[in-house]
Structure formats: structure tokens, C-alpha cells
Amino acid sequence: MGGKPKVSSKIIPLASPKGPEKLCELCQRVARLQCTECRATFYCDEEHQQADWVGIHRRICQLLVPIRTQTFLSLQRAGQIVTQQKKAELIEICRSVAQQKLSEGKHQEALPAAQFCLRCSIDVHGPNTVQLVPAYLLLAEANIGLGNVSRVAELLSQAEWSVLKSPDCGHAVHHRLHRSLGRLHMATGNLEQALLHFANDIYFASEAFGLDSTITCRGYFLMADAFAKQGKTPIVRSLYSEVTQIWHCHLTNLLENRIQNAQNPNVLLDSSYDNQSDKAQQVEVDDMLRTMLEFEQKDPRKDPAQVARVAHCLAMMWFLAGDSRKQLNAVAKRKKK
């Protein structure tokens, strides 16, 4: 269906509150509307209600009822209900929804989920803790897509401060932080600083996941983009070749595993591409491979073997994902070269 996404119509004007004023879920201004489904979420106007509904609220509306209602709060004070597990569930849902929307390029829609993820994380872990870093990075990525560079710098500064206060935090946190900082400097045109952060990203990712990990090789790809903007084509070609090799090996292993277990439906399901990587990564990898394929096809000194290898990666990826149309298109490009 075309047009605007479906929006909950079940909102009513908020009666004069008893006690503290209710605040808008998105902007924290004084609320004038109330969701009639959960009766625990409030908005300043219909535009913010619609944005929150599309962004995250339709996924978590009923989950908020036991956490935000007065009855629940009374029971909590009596020590009869534990909230941490429920809030941890909300954090994971919001993280997943925000990441999915970011992978689809829906940066505005990702904001409500990322914002709620941060607020809920603060409730669970407290302010200025390293556990908030993933939420800061989600918000930063959404704002990079919207061109809000000053807001990105503020969020990443908070993330850096949280990491500096936690010297024992893992390599994975450092890798994600440096990747986001690299993207910020790419957005501001500071290529040298971007390259420095992408180099740190690769180092920490390789410590956490291995040098040949598909997670690490994303750093190679981002670094190649910075070198491309500097006109350093040989370096770009070398980095793209490394990325292609890693993904070709990874996808080949998945495909061989699929074939070997073809007679066992349960094993087949576990080894499918959809279970190895979520939809967000699938979109990201498709974009990365297509970018490298376009680069090779435009390069006067293009390497036919590299073109074929990238096209083969695309074909394997979409075969494992069950998209035969995209698989055939990738095979056709491979044969054309």
C-alpha cells in the first residue's frame, strides 16, 4: 500500500493531570494527548504521536503498561515485581528496530526507537555508564543521516566520556565508537581524522572478532571510501579486494554448509543466510558489494577477476537469502564481464 504508514487513531486529549505534568514522549514538552491503548504514553501534538507510532510505539505499546502504570509502581515499591528484565527486553526491541530502520535509510523513523533505547538504558544502568554507548551510537547514526552534525558530535562526545571512564570496557565497544567517529569526520570532510578512527576501528574489531571477520572488513570498506575521496585509487582497489575476499570466503562457507546439510531441514534452517545475519546487515552488505562492483566497472583498469568475484558474492548472498531475482541479476553481471 502507498501513502503514509498506518497510524494509531486511538489518542485522546489529556485531561488536567493530577500531580506532575505529563511530558511528550519525543520532545519532553508539556503533553496534550494520551495514547488510549497503553494510557501511559503522552504527546505534545499529533505529529509527534504519529512519528512515535511509526518509529517504535506500535511495537512496545502494551509492553509499557506494566512498567508505567501506577499499580505496577506500587507493587514495585513493595518489592513484588522486578523491572530490570522487562526493561532489558524493551532495550533490545528498540535497538533492533532502530538498527533495521537505519539500514533501510529511514533515519527520521529510527529516532524514536533510538531515543527510547537511550532513556531505558539510563533507567537500567544509570547515567554516564558504558552500557549507554550502543544507544548513543544509534542516535548518532540516525543524526548523521539527517545531517545534524552538531548533535552527532555531542552524542559521540558523551559516548567517548563513558568509555574513558570505563578502562575495562571491551574491544567491541571501542571498535563501534571509532567507527562512528570516523563517519562523523567523513561527514565534516576531515579525511585524515576519519582515516585515523577507521584504523582504530579495524584494530579493535580484529581484536574482538578476528582479522578476517566480516565485521572487521566493514572498517576496510569505510577506509576505502576515505581514500577514494583523496583520489588514491590503488589503495582503494587493494582494500576492496580484501573486503571481497573475506565476504567471498564467508558466503562460500555458508553455501557449502547449506549443501552439505540439504537432507536435514533443521540444520538447513540454522545455516541459512537469514539466520547468520539479520535484515539490517543484509541490506548493508548488498550496498557495500554493489558499491565495489560499480567502482570496478567504472575503473579503466578494471580487474575482470575482481568483478566476477564481487558479482559471485552478490549471487551467493541473495541465493542464501532466498531472493532468486537478485541472484539471477548478479549472475548475469558476472557473465557479462
Structure notes:
The structure is a single chain. With 337 residues, the protein is mainly α. It has 3 domains: 1-79, no CATH class; 170-231; 232-337. The protein is built from 15 helices and 3 strands. It has helices spanning 46-68, 70-77, 84-103, 107-125, 133-145, 149-164, 171-188, 191-209, 214-229, 233-260, 265-270, 273-276, 279-298, 304-320, 324-336, and strands at 11-13, 33-35, 42-43. Helix 13 packs antiparallel against helix 14 (304-320) and helix 14 (304-320) packs antiparallel against helix 15 (324-336). GO terms for molecular function: zinc ion binding.
Distance between the termini: 38 Å
Please state the average pLDDT score. Answer: 84
Spatial order of strands in the largest sheet: 1-2-3
So how many helices? 15
Shape: globular
Class by alpha and beta content:
mainly alpha
Poorly predicted regions are 1-7, 267-277
The beta-strand count equals: 3
Q: How many discrete domains?
A: 3
Write down the Rg.
23 Å
Summarize the main sheet. 3 strands, antiparallel
Q: What percent of residues adopt helix (DSSP H or I)?
A: over 70%
Strand residue percentage: under 5%
SSE succession:
EEEHHHHHHHHHHHHHHH
